Amino acid sequence: MGHIICIASLKGGVGKTTTAVNLSAAFASGGEKTLLIDCDPQGSATTGVGFNKQKLTKTLYDALSGKVLIEDTVLDTHLEHLKAIPVHSEFFRAEMELMSKPEKENILRNLLTRFKDHYDHIIIDTPPSLSLVSINAMTAADFLLIPLQCEFLAYESLIQLLQFVRLIKKKLNPDLRLAGILLTMYDMGEKTSRQIAKNARSHLKNAVFRTVIPRSVQLREASSVGRPILLLDPESVGAQSYFKLAEEIMARRAKDENHKKDSYLSFPGH
Question: Cα angle vertex 45, ends 169, 177, to 5°?
């Protein structure tokens, strides 16, 4: 049975969607059956894997509103083992429409239940907000991955998110665990980046992935042309970082499944 990983941050521009797209691609390139779900009304993950939002006919919004089966929204991408469920501009209406539905926090989880047998990984990209869509994503997920930008102001939003997630865990999804906190936009030559990385590892210990994602022009360019970085420049530092992240997550998963130790983590301060 596959695992659902929700990628979340309360701060925009931290590499959340970049991570969703490129981690999904890294899994898929290794032969893992992967589904990327775009839950962000901006639709950046949708364009990040090459879809023209204006030409989409069936999207996540249609599945959440009950107009189509969720299976009918799944599209092929440029990678053989990577599928995606896209969104386009009307997805902003999902928030309002979900409010009036029974079990409104569990709608996405109910839709994805039967999908878990068909994929090794389901990656959900979320909006940078504490919205009902975000709650649905966290309630549906097995694990949460939190990008932490290497700047001092990022800690405040991380603390707020962790407080919110503990509430989700208590009220809606007691099985939700932390996949890890991912340092993003790291610049080895920048004192601030080094200090943030040091502080994060000191205070958050093993919750922080060993892998870090560098500040990278290639990663930005890949997003702008609608391709994962590994399809454009697989030898680049950015691409290699996401390969390493995928390997690190897979290693934790293997240890967890073999019961060698509890390789996934509780939320800091829990």
Answer: 20
d(CA 195, CA 78): 38
CATH number, residue 153? 3.40.50.300
State the DSSP string of 55-84.
G-SS-HHHHHTTSS-GGGG-EE-SSTTEEE
In a domain, 265, yes or no: no
The Cβ-side half-sphere exposure at 253, using a 13 Å CA radius, reads 17
Distance CA 96, CA 115 (A): 25
pTM: 0.92
Q: Say whether pLDDT at 222 is over 50.
A: yes
The predicted-structure confidence for 171-203, as pLDDT tens digits, reads as follows 999 999 999 999 998 888 888 888 888 888 888
* Domain assignment present for 199: yes
| Count of structural domains within the chain | 1
CB-count burial class (<10 Å; 0-12, 13-18, 19+) for 129 = middle
Q: Per-residue pLDDT tens for 19-46?
A: 999 999 999 999 999 999 999 999 999 9
| Cross-strand partners of 37 | 85, 124
Q: Computed over its alpha carbons, how large is the radius of gyration of the chain?
A: 17
Closest CA to 132 of 174, 162, 92, 166: 92
Domain coverage including residue 129: 3-257
Query: Is 12 a domain residue?
Result: yes
Q: How many CA atoms, within 13 angstroms, populate the side-chain half-sphere of residue 99?
A: 6
Q: How many helices (H) and strands (E) does the chain have?
A: 11, 8
Residue 125 lies in a domain: yes
Q: What tokens appear for 117 in the block?
A: 């047998």
The separation between the first and the last C-alpha atoms of the chain, rounded to the nearest angstrom, is: 27
